[in-house]
C-alpha cells in the first residue's frame, strides 16, 4: 500500500448545493477517496448544501460512506437552494446572520477548506465566502452546462442522453399521428441542453433563450415540412425560451406574462396550433432529466474533477474551481464563474450545425 502523502489541508468540509444532478456522488467519491486514501485528510460531510453549515448539520465521512456510490444518482449529502448572502436576517431559526453562522461553524469544525459542488449560485456563494476569508474550492455541476470557466459541467451529458431518448420516443408517436409535438427541456437561462438534445434527436425546430423566436417563422417552417410530405414535426424548447415580443418586454411585465401559462412548452404548443392550425401536443420532461444514474462520460468527468480537487486541497491551493478545458483538467479562480451564466454564443458552431441540417432555430 502507498504511504500517506503530506497535505496542507488536514480537515475539509464538503457540501452539494442547488439542483441535484447525476454525477454528484461520483464527484464526492472522487474528492473523498483521493483525499482520504492518499493524504489521510479528515472529511466533514455537510447536509443539504449551505443550510447544513448554517445549522451545523454535519457528520464525519468515512470510507464506508463514500464507497459504492459511483453509479448512484442524486447526492448522498442532500442539497438545498439556500443562498446565505440573500435575504440575510430573515426567516432564520437561530436569530443570527447566515454568513456569520457559516464562518463561526467553519472555525468551530476546524475546517482548513470548504469544498462546494454546485452550479452558478453555489460557486458564486463559494467566491463570496472566499472574500470573507474562508478557504473554498468549487466543483462545476449542473445539467444546464452554463458555468463560465469550464468547457463542460458534470450532469450535462446524462441529461442530454435522457432528453435525446425522450425526443426519439416522441418522434415515432408524432409520425404515427401526423402531429406536432413540442418537448420542453430544462434550461432557464441557457439553451445548451435543448440545443444539443435537439441536434442529437433531429428536432425540426429548436428554441433556446439566447435566440428570441418569431412564431410566424416557425409556422412557415412547419407548413413547408407538411407541404413536402412531412406532416409531423418535433419542436424542442428550452424552458427559458422566449418570443421576440417577450424579449422586448420589461422584466416585470415578462414575468407576469409568463406566469399566465403553465410552462413554456405548453405556451409554444398553443401558439403553434393557433398559427398553423395543425394538431399539436406538448410534453414537459421535467425532473426526469435530473434523476437517475450518471452516464459513463459524467462518471469519468466527475471523478477526474473530484480527484483534481483533492490535489488542490493537498497543495493548499484554495479559492479555485476545478474545470475542464479541452482535454485537460485544471482550475480557474472562483471569480471566473462568480455571478455569471455561460449562454450559448450566437456564433456557436452547434447553431450553424442545426441550421445546416434543416432545423429552424425560431428566427
Ligand atoms: O439545476 C438547474 C435546473 O435544472 C434548471 O434547468 C431548472 O430551471 C431548475 O434547475 C429547476 O430546479 P428546481 O425546481 O429544483 O429549483
Q: Spell out which ligands are present.
A: 6-O-phosphono-beta-D-fructofuranose
Terminal Cα separation, in Å? 61 Å
**Broad CATH class of the largest domain:** Alpha Beta
Q: Helicity range of the residues?
A: 25-40%
Mean pLDDT figure: 96
Going by CATH, the architecture of the largest domain would be: 3-Layer(aba) Sandwich
Instruction: Figure out the total of helices.
Output: 12
Radius of gyration: 22 Å
Strand order of the largest sheet: 3-2-1-4-5-10-11
Tell me the number of structural domains: 2
Structural shape: elongated
Order of helices and strands: EHEHEHEHEHEHEHEHHHEHEEH
What is the beta-strand fraction? 15-25%
Q: How would a crystallographer describe the biggest sheet?
A: 7 strands, mixed
Tally of DSSP β-strands: 11
- Low-confidence regions: none
